[in-house]
Amino acid sequence: MKKNILVVDDSALLRRVICDIINSNDNLQAVETCKDGLEAYETLKKKRYDAVVLDVNMPRMSGLELLEQLQKDKIKATVIMVSTLTVKDAEVTMMALERGAVDFVAKPNNIIEAKGDFFKESLLGVLCAVLQTQKIQKLQSTKTSVQTVSRPTSADVRSPVQKKKVSAKGNKLVALACSTGGPKSLHSVIPYLPSNLDAPIVLVQHMPVGFTKSMAERLNEVSKISVKEAEDGDILQKGCVYVAPGGKHMEVGKMADGRHKIVLNDKPAIGGLKPCANITYDSLVKSGYDEIVCVVLTGMGADGTKGILSLEKAKPIYVISQDAKSCVIYGMPKAIYETGLVDEVVPLAEVASTITKRVGVR
Fold this sequence. Notes:
Structural class: alpha/beta
Radius of gyration: 21 Å
């Protein structure tokens, strides 16, 4: 049975293009549309959809206002935002993700871009990945197929005796990677970390230029720990989160005095990703840290897995992955779990406490 998608946009032309894209997939169908948030609100009160593709800026009721109303009325909806790549929309999009949207795709600047492969692949990629993870979660909850859907638990991970021993007082770094669903998920992690965490955190979230700055600023406002968009030359400090800027790759470089700093580079995107978590993990091979705590949260694909595999050969690591049930998309955590390197599989709500327990506080 095809999944029903509701398309909400004030542009009739873009509604038609988005519907055509969705209907080009054999597993999806977009048979209904709304021209603004108010119309969508009335529609969603009466009918459930498998997903909603929602514009940010619309008359009468914006996408953000719709999400707030749905949240207020406890109406559940899986929402994918369509946002222009502007500073103003970046801020609004971050608020939308905090209010329930699972991810966003870049809005085309014109009809030629709208009909191009990039927008089509981005939209269908997110929709299909989100719906696939929902299917897995539904099967898990009903326990209809244990073999197919069983998710990793603490009993599945490798035994601690296989790990290199690390001193409890060792100098540690947390390297966190996430993608689709990450901005929302990070609000269940970063604000729950203590300000005196005994390690710095480098964070790679796949986002365009400008969006990472807005995300870092919003996280900093609600967190005890300091959060900033990383700048080239930043000296890593314990109790601070450094977010890789959109459009740049982030590396960690060891300085002559033993300290570490952020090194940004403008090399080509890796598999369409810039920043790419694999580059960050690869740079840590030559770091002076006694242990790297690798954390992999929700996201499409397998970014981070290759880098963690390389890092494990050179440094003591401890790997924490998010469980399938709490993921928006169980892609990146699944990829690292299947390597056999994962030490703990935890629900999103326990990620912060698991990190804190591993690295300690000052």
